[in-house]
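thread from #wetlab-drylab

HS: before we spend reagent money on co-crystallization trials with GLP, can we at least see a predicted complex? here's what I'd submit
DV: go for it
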Amino acid sequence: MEVIIQDSAVESCHLAARLISKQVRAYPQSVLGLATGSTPLPLYQELIRMHREEGLDFSKVTTFNLDEYVGLPRAHNQSYFYFMQRHLFQHLNVSAEKIHLPDGMADDIPAHCAAYEAKIKEVGGIDIQILGIGSDGHIAFNEPSSSLASRTRIKTLTEQTIADNARFFNGDQSQVPRHCITMGIGTIMEAKVNLLLAHGSGKAPAVAATVEGPITSMVPASILQHHERAKVFLDEEAAAHLKLHDYYQWVYHEKPSWQKI
Ligand code: GLP
């Protein structure tokens, strides 16, 4: 894993955005895996700025989102579809038919999940997958104890995640859906590059367990230790519990120029 620590969340997101912009400029037909949550918002804002000011073109890009709540129609203001439209897609020139999110209202959820997996394969797989991390170490909605080989499927949210996400539902935990459709850990591991973003002190224990702890389904993100090209973008607060903090800084600063982002 490559650990990249920046002073602030915004700097960390801007660096990740630069990596994505390089990918999209080099391969305009790139397939991007996208995440919701507050963590990637500064990254999305920077991509929007690059689109507006630097002509970064998303017209040939295909996107797949990680997850969606079951039972929320796309027009619901807390659906991840709505979130993505509001915070990213309506500001970019991604073609509507190239945008993919699981459908939380699908009648046949297992068939819908299988079709989602097939669609990812059909376009040649995900080039760069953006990930946030839950305070319990989950990625997408793969909660602790998820199979490390899991595929896109229905999951039940933990009480912890319901409590964490209640802030988006006026603080009312009873409004938070109990189920979601999420890409599996096996699905995420097939992305060619995984970028995990984490900011703030609340994520520091999960980040330390992910990067320096044992690989275990109890910390789903820890499987990224097995990924050939996993990059972890942190601010100083999220990096605070890392034993090798200074080493990661050293490695980053000593990168040969051709390896710099
Ligand atoms: C949700 C999402 C995850 C996200 C996590 C953290 O559970 N399903 O994809 O990483 O929340 O969210 P935040 O970035 O708001 O801390």
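DV: The radius of gyration is 17 Å.
HS: ok that's useful, forwarding to the group
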